[in-house]
Amino acid sequence: MVITSKLFLLTLLTAMFMACYVTNARPLHPSLSLIARLKLDDESPNCWQSLIQLQSCTGEIILFFLNGETYLGHGCCQAMHTISHQCWPNMINTLGFTSEEGDILEGFCES
């Protein structure tokens, strides 16, 4: 019984030590503001505006894939270009499109 309680106490102390060690937060660089981390300054591409523009083109994009219509407006293609070349790589996935569909749209807009 004594060995079991000592083993339990040792396990408990080890688990508490590991929990404290693992949960230490990594230091953030205070020089980087939220605006800088999200690339929202004036010189950076406007990723959020392009995403909203692309969201408004969803009807055209659905018809493009569903019916095989070969028309996407200039605004849609411009938003697609900005997102695929100047923003985060998986940003198109936030609208529910797969990476393959994003590649098809990008290829159509660049041709």
From TrEMBL:
Main location: cytoplasm
Assigned keywords, A-Z: Cytoplasmic vesicle, Fertilization, Secreted, Signal
Pfam families: Prolamin_like
Localisation: Cytoplasmic vesicle; Secreted
Signal peptide: 1-25
Presence of the UniProt keyword Methyltransferase in the record: no
Gene Ontology cellular component annotations, sorted alphabetically: cytoplasmic vesicle; extracellular region
Record's keyword annotation contains Secreted: yes
Residues in coiled coil: none
Chain ranges of the Prolamin-like domain: 46-109
Biological processes, Gene Ontology terms: double fertilization forming a zygote and endosperm; regulation of double fertilization forming a zygote and endosperm; regulation of protein localization to cell surface
Family to which this protein belongs: Belongs to the plant egg cell-secreted peptide family.
Purpose: Involved in the regulation of gamete interactions during the double fertilization and to prevent multiple-pollen tube attraction; mediates the redistribution of the gamete fusogen HAP2/GCS1 to the cell surface after secretion upon sperm arrival.
Protein name per UniProt: Prolamin-like domain-containing protein
Annotated source species: Dipteronia sinensis
